[in-house]
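Each letter names a residue; the fold follows as tokens. Both lines appear below:
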Amino acid sequence: MIKSLKSAFLALFFLSFSSAVLFAQELKKVTMEEVFKKNTFFQQTVRGINWMKDGQYYSSQINQMGYPIVVKMNVTTGEQAGILLDGKALGLNFSDYSFNADESKALVATDVESIYRRSSKGVYYVVDLATGVKQQLMNGEKISYATLSPDNDKVAFVKDNNLFLVELAGNKLTQITKDGEWNKIINGAADWVYEEEFSMAQAFKWSPDGKKIAFIRFDETEVPEFNMQLWGPLYPQDYKFKYPKAGEKNSEVSIHVYDLATSKTQKIDSGSESDIYLPRIYWTKDANQLAFIRLNRLQNQMDLFHANATSGASKLIISEISKTYVDLDYNDDLQYLADGKSFIRTSEQDGFKHIYHHNLDGSLIRQITTGNWEVTSMVGIDEKGKKIYFISTEVSPLERNFYVIGLDGKGKKSLTPAKGTHTINMSSDHRFYIDYYSTTAKPVTVTLNEASGKEIKVLEDNASLNTTLAAFALGEKEFFTFPTVDGTTLNGYLIKPKDFDPNKKYPVLMYVYGGPGSQNVMNSWGGTRDLWHQALVAEGIIVACIDNRGTGARGRDFKHSTYANLGALETVDQIEGGKYLAKLPFIDPTRVGIWGWSYGGYMSSLALMKGNDVFKTAIAVAPVTTWRYYDTIYTERYLQTPQQNPAGYDDNSPIMHVNKLKGNFLLIHGTGDDNVHFQNSVDLVNALITADKQFETFYYPNRNHGIYGGNTTWHLYTMMTDFLKRKL
């Protein structure tokens, strides 16, 4: 009996051992080379889709034999119905395109050069779709934000900080403004801080009838200059640009309307206060009525105005006031209805971002959506069908689903019941939509669907990538929750090795961003950083992530809890998260690390210093080290000004906590970072030296906030990987 049991045990042992060997042989290890060199896990998608006016077709830009082409696709059949733009035939290697209102002309951009995050300039052409004849704008000089007029015969654009328009028929050029000057006056384009924090670059709009152009003028004469040295020449060059740091002077902004018929420009009345923000302009359905949003300096009051474009007179329509701040991102879905009598907007005034219907005078018709969940975006308003399409977090803050609801607030229906994250591109007639759907385990699937939710065709299923993924030992994201110090439940995820052994003790690396309104813990396919995490997991490091208080998708109170004291609650939550993970039976409590980029670098630095009994190792990439060095719009929204709230700026600056550093610290920054200046890391290094703290640091010459280009990404992630192997 004993002998037979022994034989059975040995047989089971060898079977298990053989299975393990077979498992190891069958599944490949995720390596740095696979992620960064071979691009093994490249995700296909469908780009450049623009719905055409009749809703029966959409256009899409693809590459064919090295040249871009724009194809016309039939919605109902999913088949190609023709070629609209042929880059080879045109002799243009264009990177972007748009059509005019009647789709007789296309505007294409070539030789596009990025300036900052959203701004760019390039060489533009207008192409007649019937004849294929192309017309070059400004004799091939680089211009910005070229936009066709609604009446099809003009193009407006910005060059050298001035606003221009060209009449296509006679190629007649009109210079609308003449006072534009580098680092002084900008017409029709945003200054640096508006571009970065209000997500805008173009700052002009055609009226609905094409007879007027509204634009924003920025006078940044008194805004302090930031000097950034560019390394390479024998004598490094100075690059100076206007950057308003917290508490400093902003641009003075004003709104103007140019009338093409009279060649006159009318200034719009935006009030007597000059220290304000004017981040949005809209045209109502009335071609002589402009709408705009005004924010006060502290961003705790947001006003919507309607203005007469001819006289400049304005009237307050809606005003929202908060004890903390009014978030433009949550009030940025303003749409005027065709009836000319009402508009739809979003607001988080009841504690969650929802949809509201107003009369033109601002009086409320009704709140259309309600509940303890967020409308993350409005996708479309079907006025004939009296329906609104939107994406929300109703199922879970970790997911995004697509819904339809009546304008009367009734009949809400989910169109995407599958768990995960859905991004939607809907046709202008609201008959069809394209769904970009993914989960943590499944890369994006792109489908064409009827408005009812019925699938017409799969446009991209990433079948090849899914086959590739199946051949690798990828760890699965496991979601979890835990209560932080005040009982608030926080969301997180863990990634364990494929061959996870619950009896082993693993090091854990936490990934953090943590800034206001952000979110990392989601049921969606990740990008390069997620794949790098998989390479770390393959080396035996468990990766975790926790969304602290102040992050998004969980309502206004959760997001605004960090107001006036950035870094305090967030750091507590990350430290508590580290303690929670350290207590898990398979985690080595002496090997807990944390890393982050930008706000995440700020967080990882603070966590290592203030949580020196929890964290052994931290990496900070391009971190803010004192909010005194960051820009006005972002920083003052959450902290007020340094003059009003000095403790909010200093109490949680990593520079003030260098004496607490005990663990291993790697600090990385690009010297050409126009966003979070290299100055942040220089000052932290000085403070660490003064405190006699040993650490490692690395700078990337001339690289911006993204730290990329050429071999840079490979070098960066290789260095971080080596550091973690040595120190974690």
Residues 74 and 345 are 32 Å apart (CA to CA). The longest helix spans residues 2-26. The first strand starts at residue 50 and ends at 51. The two ends are 49 Å apart (CA to CA).
